[in-house]
Design a protein that fits this description.
Layout lengths: L11 H30 L3 E10 L2 E9 L10 H16 L9 E6 L10 H6 L4 E6 L5 E8 L3 E8 L8 E2 L3 E4 L3 E6 L3 H6 L10 E6 L1
Parallel strand pairs: 2-3
Antiparallel strand pairs: 1-2, 3-10, 4-5, 4-9, 5-6, 6-7, 6-8
Length: about 210
């Protein structure tokens, strides 16, 4: 009779990786709670914090957005200002362990997946593609976001070269949506005030 195979144990490398992931998760949660009020005081929303470790050095990437009641993008001036404010806040962090870090601040950009109700509200009026939990993707104009889901006017498929046709308004519940994506429209890009959209701008501050 063949002997039983012993369960595979974590190697030292696996242990270090798991420990690092746990450390990053805990520090991300702590910094999010610590920095969110500072971001809110500047009239912005803390979308996400990403932390990368390289030895003793940390890279802290803070992603900020406008409140869901506002349209447009975060301006370059506001990104620069919030970068200074966040840098000061991190310098004064009473629970910081003193390790060197780099602070990067940016806005989400149109390539961000739409996964939260506030993401849909922020993009009302734009052309979006919705990827449902079941079924085919739908592209259309997002006209409304309510507590239960979104309403869009879908674009109907037409032959190449023909003008796009619109279907009837369709309501999709958030529970039926896996994610969404904003579609780039040249007309909307031309409507954006010059220098006001900082979606692709990133401010970096170095801390020794």
């Amino acid at each position: 009779m063949a002997g039983r195979t012993s369960p595979k144990k974590d190697t030292s490398s696996d242990y270090r990786k798991n420990a690092q992931r746990a450390e990053i998760a805990a520090e991300t949660q702590r910094l999010t709670a610590y920095l969110a009020p500072t971001v809110a005081s500047e009239g912005l929303f803390l979308e996400e914090i990403e932390i990368k470790l390289a030895g003793a050095h940390r890279t802290v990437h803070v992603i900020v957005d406008l409140p869901e009641t506002e349209t447009g993008g975060v301006s370059l001036d506001r990104i620069a200002e919030i970068s200074r404010v966040l840098s000061d806040a991190m310098d004064e962090d009473p629970h910081d362990d003193g390790r060197p870090y780099s602070l990067e601040v940016s806005s989400p950009g149109v390539s961000r997946p739409l996964t939260e109700p506030r993401h849909w509200r922020r993009n009302t009026g734009r052309m979006v593609t919705v990827f449902p939990v079941r079924g085919d993707a739908v592209t259309g104009r997002l006209v409304e976001t309510d507590a239960e889901g979104i309403t869009l006017i879908p674009e109907l498929p037409v032959k190449k070269g023909m003008k796009a046709k619109q279907g009837e308004k369709t309501h999709l519940a958030f529970s039926d949506i896996a994610k969404g994506r904003v579609e780039i429209e040249f007309a909307h890009l031309e409507d954006e005030p010059a220098g006001e959209d900082a979606d692709e701008f990133e401010s970096t501050a170095e801390e020794a």
